[in-house]
Design goal:
mainly beta; eight-stranded antiparallel β-sheet; 1 helix
């Protein structure tokens, strides 16, 4: 057994996120394990870039309210206690609303080359605003 009493909080890299986002790793796998997880905290208006995961991603919302959007315009408005499952290869983004914090535990099953995440371009302010007000299929 390993008892981990704390993990460092690090600021998420600006090239993958808009706004202030903070990460606390929960599990960084070593072979043969492939499940990576982290507590991710988004300040109001903060969000990920568009991205996808080779083996999908599960998000468990722990605090606040937020958004999870997909390329086809679907937007889930999420809150504490809810779970969103993003299937393998689906381009999506997630983050806080413009008025509230949002925190989630992000879980990803990696591939043989790492966590299997493909990072893409930032979500534009227009895309984010449309998601907030529900114009893109929420």
């Amino acid at each position: 057994m390993e008892h981990v009493t704390s993990t460092p909080t690090v600021k998420a890299p600006a090239e993958r996120f808009t706004g202030d986002v903070y990460l606390n790793p929960i599990e960084t796998p070593t072979d043969p394990a492939r499940l990576a997880s982290a507590l991710v905290r988004f300040t109001p208006g903060a969000r990920t870039n568009w991205h996808s995961h080779a083996n999908g991603q599960t998000l468990y919302i722990t605090d606040g309210t937020g958004l999870v959007g997909t390329r086809d315009g679907n937007v889930a408005h999420v809150s504490a206690g809810q779970t969103v499952k993003c299937p393998p290869g689906e381009e999506h983004w997630h983050g806080a609303t413009d008025a509230t914090l949002m925190a989630h535990i992000a879980m990803v099953v990696g591939d043989t080359d790492g966590d299997g995440t493909t990072w893409l371009e930032p979500v534009t302010d227009e895309q984010y605003t449309h998601a907030l007000i529900g114009k893109n299929g929420s």
